[in-house]
Structure formats: structure tokens, C-alpha cells
């Protein structure tokens, strides 16, 4: 049985796991992260990969490997350019992993990797034109057009969180503009909204925020339990997210929209977003607005494995045509 190794590196965790040819996660190991420098992150990733290989002994069953990682990655050339969309250092991370494992390896950013998993094994496997919208800590998307994931000229396509939805907003974004949708329709955005209105927030929520961030899951739970404050926060996030989705639908004309990420895995919040989608705008989305079938906690590692699968298939095809 062939497997693909997925390496999912995020801001708070690194997951390395093996995924079967049908997209099922067979085994995984979780490692801590928290480093900020690119060189340190790359070294830590390779060290954890060595540990995984030593402990799990994947051997000959791994056919390819993929890295899904934050920042900017050059999918075509296997280069990790930046950890935070600012200028970084080009690291040939895919080749470094390939050399470690002796199999083809690819790299992409975390959200486009998840979109690749949807295309190969998930909701999009029978759909050649769809949008994967990931609303989690941040807000980003993967566009699949004619059966291919859109990367863009500089491998930075899908940063929808920096679309301005309120040009009168006073909320400043790291991109340099105000009123970006990520400042509302994401875990970061929900935290910022609570922070702006702390004086009105329920004591239970304020206590949860002592760890550094007001969790969206708690906001949604308290809203369901009757907190008007939390309901107003959730409604603003849902309104902005639904507006963003409809803008994307108008732009790329998909057959389907797949929702992923921690926010959209909450059925109550998903339903609120869905209820705000206007029928006229969504009338051609013939295959619907649906939640990803992948567990949000593991969509990253499955997505990374999907990138590895495509890399292995591309190399095999090239070899067969020589």
C-alpha cells in the first residue's frame, strides 16, 4: 500500500502524518512549534521529520511527501520564501525533505494545500471549478479552476483576508490597509472585536482571554447560550464572511464553495453564514455551499500529503514520457 507523507507546519503546531491513496490519515505525530526565524523553523522541521522516520519507520511505503506551511512558498520550484508575507530567505525546503526521504517532495502554503486535498480526495474530487474558503485563525482561500489550483505569478494567490469590505473602518491590518475582512471574519478578527469592546464582554469570556486570545469557539457557545454581546460579534463575523464569499463567487464563477477551518466547522456559525448568502448571487453554484469533510484539525496534514501526491504523479508522468 502506497502512502504520502504530509508535513503541516503552522504557527502553533507541526503535524507529520501518513495519508493513504484515498485521503485517509493513517497515523501522525504532533510536535510543538513557536519559532519565528525561517532558518530555525526549517531546521526544526527536518529534525522532527527525522524523529518521525525513526519512530514510525515508513520505509518503502511512502511514494511522495508534501509540505504545507505558512507564508509564501514557490510550488513550482520547491522554495519556501517567507514565513509571514514579508521578504525572507529562499530555502529549498522541498528538496531538503526529498533528500531526507528519498522520494519526490513538494511544497505549498497551508490553505492551497488543503484545497489540493479537496480536489484529490474531498468535496471537490468530482468538481473542476470550486473555491475552498478557510476561516480559521486567519482567512484565506484556494481557487480551483479547470481542475488546477491557482497559485498566481508570485505564488501568493488566495490571500482573500486582505480584501477590504469596509473602507470606512478604523481597524488597521498588517497589510497596510483598513477594513480588511480578516479583521472580522477570522479567529484573529473575533479576538480583535472582543478586545475593542472589552467593557461589554461577559466575565466568562474575559477570563478565557487571559491566555492571550479570546477564542471564537467560546464566543459562539456563549452566543448560543444567550449572550447578546457574543451574538453581535458572531453576527458581524458571519455578515462579513458571507459578503466575502459572494464577492469571490462573482469573481470566479465556481460550481461549488467548500468551507474549511475552525470557524466553519462549527455548525451553528456555518448555518448563519449560509443563511446570509443571497440566492441571486449563488444561483450558479450548482453543487452548493458545503463544509469540508476533513476534520479541521487534520486538513493541513492531509493537504500537505495531497501536494506530495501531485508531485510524485508529475514526476512519474515525466519519467514515463521520456
From TrEMBL:
Example of a GO MF term: kinase activity
InterPro entries reported for this sequence: ATPase_NBD (IPR043129), ROK (IPR000600)
Coiled coil: none
Keyword Transferase: yes
Domain of life: Bacteria
Classification via Pfam families: ROK (PF00480)
Family annotation (SUPFAM superfamilies): Actin-like ATPase domain
Family assignment from sequence similarity: Belongs to the ROK (NagC/XylR) family.
Protein name as it appears in the record: Putative NBD/HSP70 family sugar kinase
Lineage, highest ranks first: Bacteria, Bacillati, Bacillota, Clostridia, Lachnospirales
Amino acid at each position: 500500500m502506497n502512502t504520502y507523507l504530509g508535513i503541516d507546519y503552522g504557527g502553533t503546531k507541526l503535524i507529520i502524518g501518513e495519508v493513504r491513496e484515498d485521503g485517509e490519515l493513517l497515523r501522525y505525530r504532533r510536535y510543538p512549534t513557536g519559532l519565528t526565524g525561517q532558518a530555525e523553523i526549517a531546521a526544526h522541521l527536518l529534525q522532527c521529520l527525522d524523529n518521525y522516520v525513526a519512530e514510525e519507520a515508513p520505509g518503502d511505503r511512502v511514494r511522495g511527501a508534501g509540505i504545507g506551511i505558512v507564508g509564501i512558498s514557490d510550488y513550482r520550484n520547491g522554495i519556501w520564501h517567507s514565513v509571514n508575507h514579508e521578504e525572507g530567505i529562499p530555502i529549498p525546503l522541498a528538496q531538503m525533505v526529498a533528500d531526507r526521504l528519498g522520494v519526490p517532495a513538494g511544497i505549498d502554503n497551508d490553505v492551497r494545500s488543503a484545497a489540493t486535498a479537496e480536489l484529490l480526495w474531498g468535496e471537490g474530487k468530482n468538481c473542476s471549478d470550486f473555491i475552498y474558503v478557510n476561516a480559521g485563525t486567519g482567512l484565506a482561500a484556494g481557487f480551483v479552476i479547470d481542475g488546477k489550483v491557482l497559485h498566481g505569478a508570485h505564488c501568493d494567490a488566495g490571500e482573500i483576508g486582505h480584501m477590504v469590505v469596509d473602507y470606512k473602518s478604523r481597524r488597521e491590518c498588517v497589510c497596510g490597509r483598513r477594513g480588511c475582512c480578516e479583521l472580522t471574519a477570522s479567529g484573529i478578527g473575533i479576538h480583535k472585536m472582543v478586545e475593542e469592546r472589552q467593557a461589554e464582554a461577559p466575565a466568562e469570556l474575559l477570563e478565557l482571554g487571559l491566555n492571550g486570545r479570546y477564542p471564537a469557539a467560546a464566543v459562539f457557545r456563549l452566543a448560543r447560550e444567550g449572550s447578546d454581546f457574543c451574538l453581535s460579534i458572531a453576527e458581524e463575523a458571519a455578515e462579513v464572511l458571507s459578503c466575502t464569499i459572494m464577492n469571490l463567487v462573482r469573481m470566479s464563477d465556481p460550481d461549488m464553495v467548500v468551507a474549511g477551518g475552525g470557524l466553519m466547522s462549527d455548525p451553528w456559525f456555518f448555518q448563519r453564514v449560509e443563511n446570509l448568502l443571497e440566492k441571486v448571487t449563488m444561483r450558479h453554484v450548482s453543487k452548493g455551499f458545503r463544509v469540508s469533510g476533513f476534520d479541521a484539525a487534520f486538513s493541513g496534514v492531509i493537504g500537505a500529503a495531497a501536494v506530495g501526491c501531485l508531485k510524485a504523479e508529475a514526476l512519474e508522468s515525466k519519467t514515463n514520457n521520456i
